[in-house]
Each structure stands twice: as C-alpha cells, then as structure tokens.
Amino acid sequence: MTDQPPFLSGQLLLSMPGMGDDRFDRAVIAMCAHDDESALGIVVNHIRGDVDARGLMDQLDIDHSEMDDAPVYSGGPVEPARGFVVHSTDYEGQGTLNVANRWSLTATLDILRDIGAGKGPKHWLIALGYTGWGEGQLEGELTRHGWMNVPGEQEIIFDTPVETRWPRAFEVAGIDVSLLSATSGRA
C-alpha cells in the first residue's frame, strides 16, 4: 500500500446519490489538475440557464460569426465569473493545459476568439467557475460517501447528451445507476 494520493487528472469524478450538496447533484467533473497541494475540475453536465456561448461572446465583444451556439456550463462554485474551456487536444493556445492526453483546458480569451472565428478545437465546452480542493481535501472526501472516480472518456464529455452524461459515466465503469442508493447501510 502506498501513501501516494490518487492523482485524478484525466479522470471523471462523479457525485454519488445523497451526497448532500445540491451544487454537485449528479455532477460529472472533468478532473484537470490534481497533485499533492490541490485539485481542480470542471463540472461538464450542469448547464447555466442565464447565458449561452454566443451571449457570453457578445458580452466580451468577441466575434462569433463562424460558430454554432452552445450552452455555457456551471463549472463549479469557485470563481463563477471566471471562464474555462474544456476542449479536445487538437488545439493548443496560450496557457493550454493538456490533461493526460484525454482533453485540454484553456482559460484565456484567445481560445474564445479562435472558436468564434471557426479556428478553435474540434470539440469544446465553455464553463464559468470551477471545482477546487485544497491540500488533502479531495483525498479525504474520496474516503467518505459522496464521490466516485472513473476513467476519463472524451465521448462522455463531448459526444454524450448532457442529460445522460452522469448515468453514462457510471455505465462505462460497469455500474447501473438504478442500483445506487442515496442512503448507506449500517452494520
């Protein structure tokens, strides 16, 4: 047994039923960074109702004439006004973080300009905010009821309809969500 923490970059973190935090109800989090000191992920299945991609680009005065509209996701409760783009690895811009060769994360305006001009990555989603954990916090949460990590699959993030991402991620891990319970047993 090792004392090394489970480095989850490139994996999906799934909230379990009954975890008790409505902000993460049925959440699928693309884990983008995880080391000894902190962890950062983006929720990829909670859509914001107050803005879409074109509306956001209008607010930022970015031309979007060469792109289709798309939802904007609530990436998490930390810094909800800060933007992030989770995208396929076929694009690299200023500050792009390649996440285990599964997807990339960029948080600069140049990617939005490139997406709007039709020169961005093939697959992308825009999120406002992120999920974050301090040193040892995520490791502690993983030992209690609430989270499960599964292999990070691009198809879940980019090709699966948003309303089925949570059950699909469990299915890829061999788990039928209809068998999950919101309460735990006692021995």
UniProtKB/TrEMBL annotation:
InterPro entries reported in the protein's UniProt record: AlgH-like
Entry superkingdom: Bacteria
HAMAP family per record: UPF0301
Homology family: Belongs to the UPF0301 (AlgH) family.
The protein's name in its UniProt record: UPF0301 protein KCG44_01715
